[in-house]
Amino acid sequence: MTIFLYDLVAEADRRPSPFCFRIKLALAHKRLAFETAPVAMTDIKALEGGAFKTVPILKDGERVVGDSWAIADYLDEAYPDHPPLFHSPEERGLCRFLEAWLFSGVLQQVLRFYLKDIHDLLLEKDRAYFRQSREARFRCTLEEAAAGREARLDAMRAGFDPARITLTHQGQPFLSGQTLGYADCILAGVFLWIEAIGTVPLLVEGDPLVAYLERVRASLAR
Amino acid sequence: MTIFLYDLVAEADRRPSPFCFRIKLALAHKRLAFETAPVAMTDIKALEGGAFKTVPILKDGERVVGDSWAIADYLDEAYPDHPPLFHSPEERGLCRFLEAWLFSGVLQQVLRFYLKDIHDLLLEKDRAYFRQSREARFRCTLEEAAAGREARLDAMRAGFDPARITLTHQGQPFLSGQTLGYADCILAGVFLWIEAIGTVPLLVEGDPLVAYLERVRASLAR
After folding, report:
1. GST N-terminal domain: which residues (chains A, B) (predicted)?
2. What is the CATH number of the domain that holds A211?
């Protein structure tokens, strides 16, 4: 039975969700075959009896699981003979810290920077909802969020310095050490997301995170 | 045979090294008995044939190990029947990320804030060396580093927000999840260090990190 993943979709089949990228990387890491089912932002609430407000949503036979953490736990539980996402509860705990670091600080800047880009790429039907909900959250218009963003580019990129230090000065190719782990799915998911939707690159040539992202891709393509 | 740990010492037997606190917490976590051997900063280079420039240095019978990461690895290798510091290479990798986050950003602010406090508490014989080396590194005098520091207090405390979010919103009492791990030795070691040397508290009542530090102490006292 093929695993299905409801995946947020934008124009030209672009996929504008970092959480969906995270789970796609996790599925690849677990060597599980899957297909994505593209879904518009405003159609999520109509899926699977209206049980979910966000994607990713994973459908594995009769089992339907929402929320990326619940999905990761489900995958390790359901497929113990495939490579684990979490080798220990301690690794899982530290992945949650990584997410807290990323989403409390660094990604607030990133999201603000790319907010208008995301809007402009979304399906026509999703744009009004996106504008309203994000303008309420950020307390400014999408245009105000984007204004003068070039001046914030260096600071935004520097926000990832703890990852750069880990990957360059500490002799480990992945956040998780010598081999890719769920923490890398979290971080690389962010880079793939921005790659899909950004009109200004987040990572530029010479950045050790470019080489890192290549290692992640190579690791999952093997 | 008792394990000895060379531990940086200041006036009134205070211990001004976050790396030594980390290893003392790690030894307690592994339920290994140890004694500390207090050492002045300027005496480190004379220890054990001059092989080390920093503490902690662990002496276990004939074996002498410097550097906190090498010590942690040694302890897991030498005492496999005691609770592990690292349950997997992935956990170790993420502990290095935690250190990169802490020491690249947050702790630069913390160190600058408490630099003069540390100096004033050091043994008389260590003060000139400390002043010279730290003033060169920070490119300002200790007095300049301390000037107007109260204005930076809130930002310094906010630097620990990713830890607060992990420990409060994600239902896990420790960075490492439900039980204390090496990551918690790293973070709590910082708090114990500032507790020992700061004239202004880093953590104040109501901060979830105060309750966290109590949990760390309780976990190790069991």
Report:
1. 7-83
2. 1.20.1050.10
